[in-house]
Amino acid sequence: MKIGITCYPSVGGSGVVATELGKLLAERGHTVHFITSGMPFRLGKYYRNIYFHEVDVNSYSVFQYPPYDLTLASRMAQVAKTEKLDLLHVHYAVPHAISAYLAKQMVGDHLKVVTTLHGTDITVLGYDHTLKDMIRFGIEHSDAVTAVSQSLINQTREVLQVKTPIELIYNFIDKREYYPRDMCDIREEYAPNGEKVFIHISNFRAVKRTDDVVRIFHHIKKRLTAKLLMIGEGPELPVVRDLASELNLREDVIFLGKQEDIACVLSIADVLLLPSAQESFGLVALEAMACGKPVIASNAGGLPEVIKDGETGFIRPIGDVEGMAQKAVELVSDPAMYERFSRQAIERAYHTFCHKKITRQYEAIYRRVLTGETEPCPKL
Ligand code: GMT
């Protein structure tokens, strides 16, 4: 198949999923054309069967707002025609589903549109009255719509009253990249006295409740010696730094900024902390599990679908920092339990969220929209 993929190319779960899916589809012999505003950050090097088409927005002085959505639609249509694309698979509804709809109008009905909902395109933007109707329109005019968790499907129905089918396709992990690494030397640099190591990875937006991460760690520190690695950057970072100082934790909270090799960074730590207020899936939780790291998380959105409470980590209500700290301490203080959780985390990541299985599910949807045959989506 000839597939156009559009996503946000900068750091973010939806861009990662779109790019990794594109690479897997290309490995399976499909031709994949990325149509994005910049090179997706996980692409960078040469891959067979993959092409990149940049969306270059005209910044004519009359425009107060450069018309990205229209330029994207136009580029999608252009690439679809010249490369004879079968379909456009857009990740994140706003504005990609609408741009794809416009492109389809320009190219013809044979060009199919598959939209994948990733989270804040519904759980934040779906509540915005300036966008709500447009998002619903984009979803209802796609040839197929998928969402990354059952929770996100339920929320989409609730927030937008969408009637058309939305299929569940979980995010996936490629075990050739995500597996436990030996990072003992580096771990010793951060935790020279055998301290337990906790880690948080995010874009430090308010929905991640990064202040809760520091508060959880503060409670943990009352019970055992530990270090906290904070990975990523974003608007809440200065707030979190101040909080760590206020709580006298500056020596033990280590800010490492953005990191590319997440599997290696995760392998330094014992447990991932993810107390988000919203999380449609929580890709980083899956990445941690694949590296054998149990996750202490909130019960936001799709997190309970990814992390099996009491098996691959612990789930506590959003904001229950003491409960999360207590579970974290229990887990790292019991070597047998930790070992079991770590093993179960890897098994669950590789089995339920296997990259091969999920790629086949997307392929089945592509085939169905192209042929009209109702081949059922391979079971999860
Ligand atoms: O929230 C983020 O960190 C970024 C956001 C995105 O659009 O990339 O992530 C969303 O999509 C990811 C991939 O499907 C999910 O793993 C995240 O849970 C989801 N974020 C939210 O729902 C807040």
Explain what you see.
- Strands 3-2-1-4-5-6-7 form a 7-stranded parallel β-sheet, sandwiched between helices.
- It has 2 domains: 2-172 and 354-371, 3-Layer(aba) Sandwich (Rossmann fold); 184-352, Rossmann fold, CATH 3.40.50.
- The longest helix has 18 residues, at 335-352.
- Helices cover 43% and strands 16% of the residues.
- It is of the alpha/beta class.
- The protein has 15 helices and 13 strands.
- Strand 9 (226-231), helix 9 (237-246) and strand 10 (253-257) form a beta-alpha-beta unit.
- Bound molecules: ligand GMT.
- Ligand GMT binds next to helix 1 and helix 4.
- Residues 12-15, 17, 92, 118-120, 123, 148, 171, 203, 207, 278-283, 301 line the site of ligand GMT.
What is the CATH class of the largest domain?
Alpha Beta
The small molecules bound here are: ligand GMT
Average residue pLDDT: 95
- Find the count of extended strands (DSSP E, 2+ residues): 13
The coarse overall form would be globular
Distance between the termini: 23 Å
CATH architectural type of the largest domain: 3-Layer(aba) Sandwich
| C-alpha Rg (nearest Å) | 21 Å
Helix content: 40-55%
Q: How many strands, what sense, and barrel or not for the largest sheet? A: 7 strands, parallel
Number of helices: 15
Strand content: 15-25%
What is the string of helix and strand elements? Answer: EHEEHEHEHHEHEHEHEHEHEHEHEHHH
CATH superfamily of the largest domain: Glycogen Phosphorylase B
Estimated structural class: alpha/beta
Domain module count: 2
Strand line-up across the major sheet: 3-2-1-4-5-6-7
Give the topology, please.
Layout: E1 2-6, H1 13-27, E2 31-36, E3 50-54, H2 68-82, E4 87-91, H3 96-107, E5 112-117, H4 120-123, H5 132-140, E6 144-147, H6 150-160, E7 167-168, H7 184-190, E8 196-201, H8 210-221, E9 226-231, H9 237-246, E10 253-257, H10 262-268, E11 271-274, H11 283-290, E12 295-298, H12 303-306, E13 313-316, H13 321-333, H14 335-352, H15 355-371
Parallel strand pairs: 1-2, 1-4, 2-3, 4-5, 5-6, 6-7, 8-9, 8-11, 9-10, 11-12, 12-13
Helix pairs in contact: 2-3, 3-5, 8-13, 11-14
Bound molecules: ligand GMT.
Residues 12-15, 17, 92, 118-120, 123, 148, 171, 203, 207, 278-283, 301 line the site of ligand GMT.
